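Session log. Operator J.P. requested a structure for one protein chain; no other inputs attached. Running the standard single-chain path with token output.
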Amino acid sequence: MSYLTHLLTHLRKDLRLEWRARDSINGMLFFSLLVVVLFSLAFEPDAAVSRQISGGILWVAILFATVTALNQAWTRELRNDVLDAQRLAPSPASTLFLGKAIANLLFVGLVELILAPIFVVFYNLHVLGNPWLLALVMPLGTWALIVNGTFFAALGLRTRNRELLLPLVLFPISMPALLGMVQATTLILTGGDNLYAVFWIKMLTGYDIIFTTVCILLFETILHAE
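Structure written below.
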């Protein structure tokens, strides 16, 4: 079997499990919508300050959704010793990691598609900048959170307080990416200088490439560690 075949097999498995249970999607939608509604009650949607902080609020909502999905990403592998079977499988360890990460990206992306129109209505937003740049920021920023979160969720899988440990490790190491996401999104929504937005997009691209490579190279060690 080719590398792509192994990858698609892991991806289909995760998508099928989520389609049957829908645990991650429901939790992500609840927490992300809760954040959007609470902040809309705290700030006047028509005020200029709402537009300035909208980028930060959007990524806080996505961050909650991402952590909710990542906390459940590997718990299914512990049932019936599935993770032990994955260790013995002839497929490369990186295909398991990438399949899991891509599945999480699709889950969070689906929540973002549902959240976007609700967010626009609650905050009365109009994109004053280039909307195509926003179409780059969203997947790049989401992948930055997903790839690190999937890796660290696997790293702390056998710890006692893995739900608490994941945010404590993920948030500090994702600070450069979070800064780039918020700054680029705010610049695009407020019609700021596109050059600065492109700079943050390039930074996010470099961040994604570096951490994706590191996570893929180190995942086999994490998978076979006791």
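Operator note: Residues 9 and 152 are 22 Å apart (CA to CA).
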